[in-house]
Amino acid sequence: MAVQYQYHPDHLTKSEPLKYTSDELKVGEMILNIGPQHPSTHGVLRLEVITDGEVIRDVVSHMGYLHRCFEKHAEALPYNQIIPYVDRMDYMAAMNSEHAYAMGVERMLGISDKIPKRVEYIRVLVAELNRIASHFVAIGTYGLDIGAVTPFLWMMRDREHLMRLLEWVCGARMLYNYIWIGGLFYDLPVGFEERCTDFINYLKPKLTHLENLLISNKIFIDRTAKVGTLDLDLAINYGITGPMLRGSGLRFDLRKVDGYSVYPELEFNVPIGEGKMGEVGDCWDRTWVRMQECHESVKIIEQCLRQLSSDHKRTRSFDPREVVPKKIRPKAQDFYVRAENPKGELGYFFRADGRSEIPFRCKARACSFVNLSVLPEISRGHLLADLIAIVGSLDLVMGEVDR
């Protein structure tokens, strides 16, 4: 007999009905709801899971609980006032999101080649610091999802140093509004380069310890290897990007492919999944890629610090707002810009009418939203307990999903 478990009707809105009904289920199948209160859903995601015993037959994602409304806000605000709303999509990587947005508007205005090199190096520096902080949350909470408490505590300890550095730069802990169109809110504080160098020297051996503690742990390997395998063809067809795509074996990183900002001047590698512990594109590979990207971000940060310390142009007269336009009014055009966020390709589509300082349209191509779409494909046939490991390996931030 088919059994259906669901929330009390008061907990379901008219816009969020169950996709399946008990009449559509086969004998032995049932509907289970995971989230939005389940810790492993990392926010407000609700999963409607069709199971046959403990085997997953289908997964349906239900969004619509967070309501960031980014696109609608953007239609009512000047370009420069949209940046705080950009921060609130992927709030784990706000610097990276700001970098992509500011870069897009600057290209529309035709001022991207006028941005001072010091500003560009600072942007990359803070973006890579934020990339490590984002990956630490992804890896630490992933370990927590499948029962490993210590790695989470260690990574949150080291992430706290990163958050303090970024807070020192702009005064905010997570939602920065630091990268402005045409420049920065302010230059780096005095002594920041030295303090950041000390932290990087502290972090490098810690990354190896963290990798040995979690990624190389036998229990972790048993829970993640050959689980949720994402084939490369499937990843490409679904538009998957970031560590998920690279975990499936494709060396595709927009910092290399598009070569924006000063990334072409920096040396770093693009790690890909190799199936060392199971299959190429499984949960272990995706986590391993994120860990290796932390090592590469450290290399980028060190190079930026060397460039900034040797920058003799830093004087009291340096103005990070020198190129910030007083009025931001791009000519009439449709424009798309993309950048490599910690979770994948973050893109912004702009439509400007040429008359207003408010964009006629600003659409975000959010990494988490696209990456979530492949969840049913990589979950079918796995055990229910494996679904927690698969969802955690996607590294979702729901501000990007329900934006």
What does this 3D model show about the protein?
The protein has 403 residues and is α+β, with helices and mostly antiparallel strands. Helix content is 43%, strand content 12%. It contains 15 helices and nine strands. A four-stranded mixed beta sheet has the order 1-2-3-4. Strands 7-8-9 form a three-stranded antiparallel beta sheet. The longest helix has 29 residues, at 117-145. The chain is globular. Mean pLDDT is 90; it is low at 1-15.
Tally of helical segments: 15
Count the strands?
A: 9
Structural class: alpha+beta
The secondary-structure element order is EEEEHHHHHEEHHHHHHEEEHHHH
Helices, strands, pairings?
Blueprint: E1 3-4, E2 29-34, E3 46-52, E4 55-62, H1 70-74, H2 83-87, H3 94-109, H4 117-145, H5 149-170, E5 179-180, E6 183-184, H6 192-215, H7 218-224, H8 232-237, H9 243-247, H10 254-257, H11 283-309, E7 333-341, E8 344-352, E9 361-365, H12 367-372, H13 375-379, H14 384-393, H15 398-401
Parallel strand pairs: 1-2
Antiparallel strand pairs: 2-3, 3-4, 5-6, 7-8, 8-9
Helix pairs in contact: 3-4, 4-5, 4-11, 4-14, 5-6, 6-11
